[in-house]
Amino acid sequence: MAFLSATLDRVKPSPTIAVTTKAQELKAAGKDIIGLGAGEPDFDTPENIKEAAIRAIHEGKTKYTAVDGIPELKKAICAKFKRDNALDYTPAQVTVGTGGKQVLYNAFMATLNPGDEVIIPAPYWVSYPDMVLLAGGEPVVVEGPMQTGYKITADQLEAAITPRTKWFLFNSPSNPTGAGYSWDELKALTDVLMRHPHVWVMTDDMYEHLVFDDFKFCTPAEVEPGLYDRTLTVNGVSKAYAMTGWRIGYAAGPVALIKAMGKVQSQSTSNPCSVSQYAAVEALNGTQHYIPENAKLFQRRRDLVVSMLNKAQGIVCPTPEGAFYVYPSIAGCIGKTTAAGAKIADDEAFATALLEETGVAVVFGAAFGLSPNFRVSYATSDEALTEACTRIQAFCAGLS
Question: What is the model's pTM?
Fold first, then answer.
């Protein structure tokens, strides 16, 4: 359609949203569907946070706020960064957006010129490359294969940097793999970045508190203080506090960058929901006791899913360090035919046949930049996960 912007030709709709929507439509039509596509916790927002939102409504805190966040929330974010990450920020260095996605998008819109490059490790969250493209930049994808735990090496990062590189976009623990970089692994990457002062660092720390076993989370500006002045540390309340629908993300970084991002927001969405902001203040300042409890629950589900998927013929499923995803390889299934006669030419064909023949909805690996794989979100009940994995095992056993 000639009326539409040519920029839209550079991007595609979100595959994760498409899978979730299709699963919901099939469920509404009476099909027996188990959705493992959505990246959100299945438990409710904690009561203290909901009460804070209700209190804000009754107190009339329902008007426009400052474009990039209320002072109380910015202060709470500064305290969070100090408490959890040993990072000192002032409220002037903090911005609040309508979810982490808007914060990332604002940063790209505020900084990218045509031809600027953004290094993105793959597998990546589906929106990263498209946000870069919408902002006029060029994504440079660096693959971290299963053999290296879905993580990239310092040598790979060094090789990807050019004079046109503006950002290195970093996500640990990762969506879609759950892979987490240890302090030493991250230090190797930050050592490379210290040799290239024109490259800025954007970190997506959304799964910071969902880590397992003895894994210790760390973030680039914490590991290498020399990067502090060119790092945007992004986080939010969606995952750790089960607040996906409240849409609050935030970031801290250099004042000039934060002001520029605020300018973008002032001419697009303006302020995030006022009530959600007051709820987020309580999330960050209030009790944190349920966070490790939820992490233990997710770890149990991880172990269940990894164990069951590794018993499926043709599937290899590594054990992730965090988040609530697994990213199994289906290399052993490619080229085979399902019991219903569908040819498994690639991971998208696998996911389509799996949904149509078993009612299990997963997201195919090509959407995340590394194939042949699929992503499972195990943020659902043990019963649903057991049934879904049983169906996947039967589906794989039927391949020939």
Answer: 0.95
Contacts of 367 (CB under 8 A, 6+ apart): 15, 16, 126, 375
The 10s digit of each residue's pLDDT in 31-51 is 999 999 888 899 899 999 999
pLDDT at 46 (0 to 100):
97
- Answer for the pair 42, 379: CB distance below 8 angstroms, yes or no: yes
CA 266 to CA 326: how far, in whole Å?
A: 38
* C-alpha to C-alpha distance for 133 and 153, rounded to whole angstroms: 25
Last residue of a domain, one of 232, 257, 285: 285
Domain count across the chain: 2
The rounded Cα 125 to chain-centroid distance in angstroms is 5
H or E, element range at 250: strand 249-252
DSSP three-state, residue 238: coil
Cβ within 8 Å of residue 265, ≥6 positions away: 67, 68, 95, 97, 102, 106, 271
Query: Which is it for the CA torsion 67, 236, 198, 7, positive or negative?
Result: negative
Place of tokens 């085979």: 336
CA-wise closest residue to 264 among 277, 279, 281, 251: 251
Residues 6+ apart with CB under 8 A from 101: 127, 131, 249
Residues shown for the chain? 400
Task: For residue range 294-313, list pLDDT tens digits in order.
Answer: 999 999 999 999 999 999 99
Q: What angle do CA 344, 348, 351 make, to 5 degrees?
A: 80
Q: Are strands 374-377 and 325-326 parallel, antiparallel or unpaired?
A: antiparallel
Query: CATH number of the domain that 364 lies in?
Result: 3.90.1150.10
